[in-house]
Specification:
Largest sheet: 6 strands, antiparallel
Mean pLDDT: 81
Number of strands: 11
Shape: globular
Helix content: under 10%
Number of domains: 1
Number of helices: 4
Strand content: 25-35%
Radius of gyration: 16 Å
Low-confidence stretches: 1-26, 214-235
Order of helices and strands: EHEEEEHEHEEEEHE
Structural class: mainly beta
């Protein structure tokens, strides 16, 4: 399938403000060859984005499910299933390369994650997979978002987090980075097309907690770069 990239404004309070000085830069996401994950059930597809064309510094990355029920499983596995996320200076052509590439140590998967769970498709479980007992935060002991190690199974799953339909997860970096020479890698558990119904945002400012996100967007001086995948392309 062919990959298309749609660069657009994020909605909500940013649209209401009408006066945000925002910069949108086209970014192409590429489906890498092969699958990675736990050897017992390795079905994680890896996607790469070359961030070299981004202007200025960025401080956060956000992934939002916009599938509206497209692709994937039901219940606790609803929505986009994220195996791992990585920033690296290594330019990979395969999923295996991305999984083993040395990453830049700017992710704090305990205190640097902002999670807004989405809804579940029936039958509904108590919470989304890979989340805390309350279902409102990520349990990284299960999700292990720093490693492409997802066990792709609905019976004995491990190593990923499910966002739910229209859910989102944000990562505030420990330090702002330039996109020059950087590559973003994201793992989709199951390789079932859920990335095609998601959006990836590379932001110039940190992401606040979900309850204040929309309000804060209205006050941001610059809203970085918004990228939406509509279809998947295989090399």
């Amino acid at each position: 399938m062919r990959l298309h990239t749609l660069v657009r404004w994020i909605g909500g309070a940013a649209a209401l403000s009408g006066c945000l000085a925002a910069q949108a830069v086209p970014v192409t996401l590429v489906h890498l060859t092969g699958l990675v994950g736990d050897p017992g059930a390795a079905a994680t597809a890896v996607y790469k984005a070359d961030l070299s064309s981004l202007a200025g510094l960025f401080s956060a990355i956000s992934i939002s499910d916009q599938s509206g029920g497209f692709g994937g499983a039901t219940g606790q596995f609803s929505g986009f299933d994220l195996d791992a996320i990585k920033l690296s200076t290594t330019n990979c052509a395969t999923a295996a390369c991305a999984a083993s590439a040395v990453g830049i140590n700017v992710f704090d998967f305990l205190s640097g994650v902002v999670f807004a769970p989405g809804s579940q498709r029936t039958p509904v479980d108590a919470k989304l997979f890979g989340t805390s007992p309350s279902g409102t935060t990520v349990n990284n002991a299960v999700a292990t978002l720093g490693s492409f190690d997802g066990f792709s199974s609905t019976l004995t799953p491990n190593g990923f987090v499910s966002l739910g339909d229209f859910g989102s997860i944000g990562f505030n970096l420990s330090s702002a980075l330039s996109g020059a020479g950087l590559f973003l890698y994201i793992g989709e558990v199951g390789d079932n097309g859920e990335v095609a119904g998601s959006s990836i945002q590379v932001l110039s400012a940190p992401i606040p907690e979900p309850g204040t996100y929309a309000l804060t967007l209205a006050g941001l001086g610059v809203l970085g770069w918004v990228v939406r995948r509509r279809q998947a392309r295989r090399n």
